[in-house]
Amino acid sequence: MSGVIKAENLHKVYSETKIPVKALNGVNLEIMEGEFTAIVGPSGCGKTTLLNIIGGLDHPTMGNVLVANEDIANMKDGELIDFRLKNIGFVFQAYNLIPVLTTLENVEFIMLLQKQDKTQREKRSMELLEEMGIADKANMRPSELSGGQQQRVAVARALASKPKFILADEPTANLDSKSTENLLDIMAKMNKEENATFVFSTHDQRVIEKAKRIVTLEDGVIISDVKK
Amino acid sequence: MYIKIAWRNIWRNKRRSLITIGSITFAVLLACIMRSMQLGSYDRMIENAARFYTGYIQIHKAGYWDEKIIDNSFSWDQELLAKVENTEGVNSAVPRVESFALASFENKTKGGMVLGISPEREHELTRIKDKMVEGEYLQDNDEGAVVSEGLAKYLKIGVGDTLVLIGQGYHGANAAGLFFVKGIAKFPVPEQNNQTIFISLKKAQWFYAMPDLITSMSLVVDKAKNVDRILADLNGKLDMNYLEIMGWKDLMPDLLQGIEIDNISGRIMLWILYAVIGFGMFGTFMMMTAERMYEFGVMMSIGMKRVKMQFSVFLEMLMMSSIGVIAGISISLPILVYYFYNPVFMTGEKAEAIEQFGVEAAYFFSLQPSLFYNQAWAIFFMAWILGFYPLYVIQRLKPVEAMREA
Ligand SMILES: Nc1ncnc2c1ncn2[C@@H]1O[C@H](COP(=O)(O)OP(=O)(O)OP(=O)(O)O)[C@@H](O)[C@H]1O
Ligand SMILES: [Mg+2]
Question: DSSP assignment, residue B51?
Fold first, then answer.
């Protein structure tokens, strides 16, 4: 089995600042299909930078990123947008949803961009909302949902089109402990039921405990990689 | 989908969108009314001058326009009349003998414009019978005269009195005659109202000693916009060595120029109005873009192409402008239709003050379609130009930066 993500010797230097910041210093990481991986480490260690690069949102200064055997490090921005649409699900820390769309429309959104047909879209979206326990909120706007509910909608949206993997940068950072646990349980469930591959970053010890693989970063290098 | 997103985005900030739409509505409304009044007054001025005086087309002896003397006259014969009246779009031809004479009654004397007319034909062009305020209108070969109301007032002459006319006739002959006043007619254009005397064509030809000759032939045409075509047709038919044919634009160059100058100043006003509204629109578009950076970042991260986002935002701006334009036109249309059919005539001192400048004291409105779609174009054009800002921002957007900065 080969990895869905293969990052080789990743370096990232932010040079727009007065003193260039070396955010990544030679990261090698392979993520296998179906893994449930937490990227952890102190603030400023490079978690977001790493996730952005393997998600095709940013380019590495040096190194390669292969996603499903395609080299995305050198893709043009325009191509990357399309690549992300087809292959990668995203969950951000907060405000993931399009405020003018309902819960259901938000979940359907990516499938819509992929031009899937309406019945298929709605079926899949409603199923996911059931799984997340928020089917009754299908016609509400994001502003009418709690933070935890919004994050669950974001997870549903990311899962809806069955991407190769889902990246979540601190998905629980704005949630209370109960919502955090709930969200992680749902992610774990979907990881099991749909064999969805998750890579998420976190500070939260309780979240780390739920992960099946824990990659620890410090000063832009991986200092440990533990599989449970 | 894009329509849905755009539509809902408009109502996200109801107050701001309503203010923006309202200001567009207001601008369109104001512009439509202003333009309608301007164009309406131009139409009326041209109509007053052409339809009720010179005609939209005139035929003269070649050289008459440069030297308007009675010696430059031509013969009024059946062959010419037939040729002219058989031209498509020409309803009828109206012959005139036109010259100056001194008009006096008792101890008052004033220079007057004497018009020898064919009474029925003249009525067809100028509706002169409707302007009679006293006495009777002329008949063919009539011996009497119809005096314009302003002149009659000046001379203190009334129906039944005898008017003395003294002038110069054909090839220097003396022209003098007595005419009893048969009627008095009132005209809207002061210049005309203060100096015109109508007598029958026959009587005028006798007075000026020019039997069977006329100085001008005005044409009644079916539609003002056919004038250029009719001119071209006539040019091919008539003997252009002997005659000259002129359209209303040549007949009234001063009027045309006056209208053009006024029209330009009207347009400048419009541009100022639109510039003000444009700033407002731009402000809205800018805020709209600025507060949605994070959202744009998310959408682009999850795979929404730039063009699609631009399309959605563009739709939003288009919809906002359209609502404003449609509202503005829908409000102005009934108002203008009403005033088109019910022009506002001023009365009293104010009216007199205005009439002193030789202008009719009334507001007329135009319903020209161009008046409405020009405003629509102006707004859409501005939305189009100003809309480049958000489109440009989206074009340059990098998802990570957009989300971090927000
Ligand atoms: N656009 C940027 N320009 C300059 N420096 C940056 C930029 N983005 C990140 N950095 C720097 O790079 C380093 C890594 O940042 P990154 O955001 O990846 O850390 P992180 O592990 O996600 O931190 P946190 O836990 O606080 O989210 C930090 O020192 C940060 O200040
Ligand atoms: Mg981070």
Answer: I
As given in the structure block, the two tokens for residue A119 are 């019945």
The per-residue pLDDT for A211 is 94
From residue A62, give the alpha-carbon distance in Å to each of A12, A223, B25: 7, 20, 55
Domain boundaries, chain B: 2-49+255-405, 63-239
Decide: A45 in ligand 1 pocket, CB within 6 A: yes
Q: Which residues contact B204 (CB under 8 A, 6 or more apart)?
A: B97, B114, B115, B116, B117
Dihedral angle of Cα A30, A94, A175, A44, to the nearest 10 degrees: 50
B220-to-B52, B68, B230 alpha-carbon distances in Å: 10, 22, 11
Q: Compute the distance from residue A4 Cα to the ligand 2 centre, in Å.
A: 22
Chain A interface includes B295 (CB < 8 A): yes
> How many angstroms separate the CA of residue A37 from the nearest CA in chain B?
20
CA A82 to chain CA centroid, Å, is 16
User: CB–CB of B7/B319 below 8 Å?
Assistant: yes
**Rounded Cα gap, residues B122 and B52, in angstroms:** 10
Question: In this structure, are residues A82 and A56 in contact, taking their beta carbons and an 8 Å threshold?
Answer: no
- The ipTM (two decimal places) reads 0.94
Q: Which amino acid is at B194?
A: N
The torsion angle over the Cα atoms of residues A156, A158, A164 and A169, rounded to 10 degrees, is -120
* Side-chain-facing half-sphere of B396: CA atoms under 13 Å: 6
| A96: nearest Cα among A80, A77, A79, A109 | A109
Alpha helices in B208-247 (DSSP H): 227-237
Residue (of B333, B328, B332) closest to B274 by Cα position = B328
CA dist B317 and B393 (Å) reads 15
Task: Report the alpha-carbon distance of residue B297 to residue A205 in Å, rounded.
Answer: 29
Does the beta carbon of A29 lie inside 6 Å of ligand 1? Answer: no
**B108: β partners:** B105
B115 contacts B198 by C-beta, under 8 angstroms: yes
Please tell me the distance in Å from B306's CA to the nearest CA on chain A: 8
Q: How far apart are CA A114 and CA A109, in angstroms?
A: 9
Angle between helices B306-341 and B388-396 (to 10 degrees): 170
Can you tell me the mean pLDDT for B128-148? 93
- pTM of the predicted model as reported, rounded to 2 decimal places: 0.77
Q: Give all strands (DSSP E) within B22-82, no chain letters.
A: 57-61, 74-75
The pLDDT, as a whole number, for residue B328 is 94
Q: Does B306 touch chain A (CB under 8 A)?
A: yes
User: Which is nearest to A95 in space by CA: B304, B302, B6, B1?
Assistant: B302
The letter for the amino acid at A70 is E
pLDDT digits (tens, 9 = 90+) for B47-90: 777 766 788 899 999 999 999 888 999 998 888 899 899 999 89
State the distance between the two ends of chain A, measured CA to CA, in whole angstroms.
19
Cα distances from A182 to residues A145, A151, A172, A175, A208, in angstroms, run: 15, 10, 10, 10, 14
| Alpha carbons A124 and A157: distance in angstroms, whole number | 10
The pLDDT tens digits for B107-116 are: 999 999 999 9
Q: Which residue has the tokens 């998420």?
A: A200
Mutate to test the pocket of ligand 1, among A13, A16, A21 (most ligand atoms within 8 A of CB): A21
Whether chain A has a CB inside 8 Å of the CB on B3: the answer is: no
The mean pLDDT of A28-49, rounded to a whole number, is 94
